[in-house]
């Protein structure tokens, strides 16, 4: 088990996880569990320490494969850590763990860029399963395709191998889940996806979330697209779900 400030192990020797948890007992249990599953863990016991660990990793040109982060932390709160990571990197999976379980808390964290939210007390097997889901998405993202695979819809250009969305040549930063949703909609223009379909395809797991989960991600996508003038591509089909319609009135 690695404590705060330790170097990020090279990805060839294992998947690296930053555990940000001020309760040493809980953090140790999580680190032991993930370590036994083959993950290489680094612990930070405050928001301030987590920031220093992330900054040190970035200075070495490294990044963690997954971040598991509590919210109520000394120094910097978990929300600031999520914001810090997302400002520098749109792709690192962030799994938030917290005793705060209100729908508002969950929605706000998703808006900040968290990929998943696990309420305390949580089952360690469930945490492992959720991390594995996030890594499967990242594995798809890293899988290159011969000759490239760019999907063009209207002003959008979606590079599936690079996992990027550009609008008229300018890249729009998306989280992995946001990209999954955009890619699904763009691959089948005018097809109406229900919230359940989008969740199961974008998250890669059975639909067991509140209705707001998918809606919040779609809202985030629209907000990021608004400066490009293409936020209207993603349309709500009331009572059904969402679709991509490039032409007005489609």
Can you tell me about this structure?
This protein is α/β, with parallel strands linked by helices and 250 residues long. The protein folds into 2 domains: 11-142, Response regulator (Rossmann fold), CATH 3.40.50.2300; 150-244, Orthogonal Bundle (Arc Repressor Mutant, subunit A), CATH 1.10.10.10. The chain contains 8 helices and 12 strands. A 5-stranded parallel β-sheet has the order 2-1-3-4-5, with helices on both faces. A 4-stranded antiparallel β-sheet has the order 6-7-8-9, covered by helices on one side. Strand 11 and strand 12 form a beta hairpin. Helix 6 packs across helix 7 (195-203). The longest helix has 19 residues, at 124-142. The N and C termini lie far apart (55 Å).
């Amino acid at each position: 088990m690695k404590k705060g400030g330790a170097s990020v192990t090279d990805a060839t020797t294992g998947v690296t996880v930053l555990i940000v948890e001020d309760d040493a007992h809980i953090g140790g249990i999580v680190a032991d569990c993930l370590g036994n599953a083959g993950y290489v863990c680094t612990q930070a016991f405050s928001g301030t320490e987590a920031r220093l660990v992330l900054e040190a990793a970035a200075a070495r040109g490294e990044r963690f494969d997954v971040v598991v982060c509590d919210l109520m932390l000394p120094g910097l709160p978990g929300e600031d850590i999520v914001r810090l990571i997302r400002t520098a990197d749109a792709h690192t999976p962030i799994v938030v763990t917290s005793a705060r379980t209100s729908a508002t808390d969950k929605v706000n964290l998703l808006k900040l860029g968290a990929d998943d939210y696990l309420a305390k007390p949580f089952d360690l097997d469930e945490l492992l399963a959720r991390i594995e889901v996030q890594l499967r998405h990242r594995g798809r993202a890293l899988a290159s395709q011969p000759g490239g695979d760019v999907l063009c819809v209207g002003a959008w250009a979606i590079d599936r191998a690079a996992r990027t969305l550009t609008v008229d040549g300018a890249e729009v930063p998306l989280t992995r889940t946001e990209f999954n949703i955009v890619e699904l909609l763009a691959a089948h223009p005018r097809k109406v996806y229900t919230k359940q379909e989008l969740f199961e395809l974008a998250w890669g797991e059975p639909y067991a979330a509140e209705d707001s989960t998918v809606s919040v991600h779609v809202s985030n996508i629209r907000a990021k697209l608004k400066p490009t003038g293409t936020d209207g591509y993603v349309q709500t089909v009331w009572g059904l779900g969402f679709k991509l319609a490039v032409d007005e009135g489609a």
